[in-house]
Structure formats: structure tokens, C-alpha cells
Amino acid sequence: MSEIKVDQTIDCKGLACPMPIVRTKKAIDQLDAGQVIEIQATDKGSLIDIQGWAKNTGHHYLGTLEDNDVLKHYVRKASATETKEEKKHPYVISTDELQIKLADHEKVTVLDVREPAEYAFNRIAGAISIPLGELENRIQELNQEDDIYVVCRTGNRSDLACQFLTEKGFKKVNNVEPGMTGWTGPTEK
């Protein structure tokens, strides 16, 4: 494979969601349309985060190469006519509001879209684990009629999951913010 020409490289090694996206947003603003940025990250979740962010904004996700344990994501900055305002899922619930629903034994489905290691160490009791990168292939595990509350670490991956589920016909989908970083309710390991 020939060397990929990049106009800027940003180092996000050792950073977890949402920091690779935060740094990418800031860096891409400094580029001209058509220029390519390389995002170096060690967080496996950054792959789906970068792909989802690019799709959401109109920038072109070119691909990802793995070099040892470093993921190198390549994104081409879109022109002004190609970019679109980054959209957010309109239905959001706070962690406190979800905690009340669970305490009241309301019939809800909690979907945790974090990576398996994140889920293994700390999760909302009864949450279903479907990592964001697997959601498309495992969507049949969810019922379109259920009230679904989607959680991740900070609310970014869950936002992408909510948008995806809504596009696939799910009607009652809520993003839980600020995700597990703000969760004070009971958890299980």
C-alpha cells in the first residue's frame, strides 16, 4: 500500500470517548476543504465514533489502518456545500430521570452501546449490551415497540445509536445524558 498523504495528524492515543471526536472537530476546522486529517487513537470505540461523526457532518471517512495497537483514521474535510450541521437525536433524558423510571419499575429497555470491557466493569442492572459497532447486525434483538433508553459513557455513542434506531423505524428511543459518567444509581458488575 502506498503512503497516505495527510495534511495534519492529531494524537488521541490513550484518550477515550468523546475526546478523539472533540479533538478531531477542533483540528478539522483549521483545514481547507479537500485536505486529509489522520487521527491516531488507541480506543477501539473511536472507529465507530469517527465513522458516525463523519456521516453526521458530511466529512468523508476514508478508512482506518491499524498499526500495532494504534488505529489511524483518515478523514477528508468536506467543502462548505458538502458539510451539514451536526445533528443530535431530539429525545434526551437525564440519568436522574432514567433512575426514577427504573425505581418505579416502569417497563423500559436500557440499551448499553459501550464496548464489552466498559460494560463488564460497571453497568445499569438489566441493561442489554450491544456495542455501537454491532448494532446494525444485532438490531433484531430489540423490539421496535419498546421504550428504549440508550446509554454509553458520555452520551455521544448513544446519540449515534439513537439516530440509527430511529432511521430503522424505532419510535420510542431516548438518549441518556451524560451517560455512565453521570450515573449515580445502582450498578452491577
Explained architecture:
There is one protein chain. The chain has 189 residues and is an alpha/beta fold. The longest helix has 12 residues, at 46-57. It is globular, with a radius of gyration of 17 Å. Helix 1 links the parallel strand 1 (8-12) and strand 2 (36-41). Helix content is 28%, strand content 25%.
Strand content: 25-35%
What is the strand arrangement across the widest sheet?
5-10-9-6-8
Mean pLDDT: 93
Following the backbone from N to C, one meets helices and strands in this order, namely EHEHEEEHEHEEHEHEE
Summarize the structure.
By secondary structure, the chain is of the alpha/beta class. The chain is built from six helices and eleven strands.
Chain-wise SSE layout:
Elements: E1 8-12, H1 19-28, E2 36-41, H2 46-57, E3 60-67, E4 70-76, E5 92-94, H3 95-103, E6 109-112, H4 116-121, E7 123-124, E8 128-129, H5 135-138, E9 148-151, H6 156-167, E10 173-177, E11 187-188
Parallel strand pairs: 1-2, 5-10, 6-8, 6-9, 9-10
Antiparallel strand pairs: 2-4, 3-4, 7-11
